[in-house]
Amino acid sequence: MFAKEPIDLDKISDDSTDKEILRFALAAELDAINFYEQMAEYTDDEDLKKILLDVAAEEKEHVGEFQTLLLDRDPQQVEEMEEGKEEVKEMLGW
Question: What does the domain layout of the chain look like in residue ranges?
Answer without folding.
Answer: 16-92
